[in-house]
Amino acid sequence: MEKVNLAAKLSAFDALFSPKIVARMNEYKIAVVKTKGEFVWHKHDDTDDFFLVLKGRLRIQLRGLPDVVLDPGELFVVPKGLEHCPRADEETHVLLIEPYGTPNTGNAGGPLTAAEETI
Amino acid sequence: MEKVNLAAKLSAFDALFSPKIVARMNEYKIAVVKTKGEFVWHKHDDTDDFFLVLKGRLRIQLRGLPDVVLDPGELFVVPKGLEHCPRADEETHVLLIEPYGTPNTGNAGGPLTAAEETI
Fold first, then answer.
1. Is the pTM of this model over 0.90?
2. ipTM > 0.90?
3. Pairing of the two strands B58-62 and B74-78
């Protein structure tokens, strides 16, 4: 029952590609993540994937489609089942929304798979 | 399959208390709304209610609890079933997320009830 200041939450950690949950809405986790460099190609067969850029610039590569490039104040929802790979040349901060239990690496798994950590 | 620039969407309308849907994530609507003044006390028995302030300042009055005051970059999720009433002294822009079919006025109804309009 407390408000969430996104900048304050983002100042509390440094790890890249490691989403931190800051709030819950029904069965969804609201998370912030810091990215720099390329993530991993993956998809989520059961859910859309919400991205809102807070700082920096995020390029979301989409399999077979043009990239989507997001600046602060821009959002994109990757449709379920569409393979995608986020990439950021500079450190970029993003608000993510997905159902609880959705792994950040989707079907790909691997070393970038993060635990669902709340801060 | 297009990105959403929130400022551009917000520049496309003037109406207050009239959420405009800008994206869809699974069964949820992502909307922007302009508010100024007091909304109406209401609750949503079936869903939490997500608010992220983009511009201005939003005071969310909560029945029996202290107000939550949100500045830009701050979010709050009103728990399902909790009566609340947003109020803004200046024009305030907010990102809202709720399931499709959730009326903006919840159980209260009345003249401020808005259609689900996508822009």
1. yes
2. yes
3. unpaired
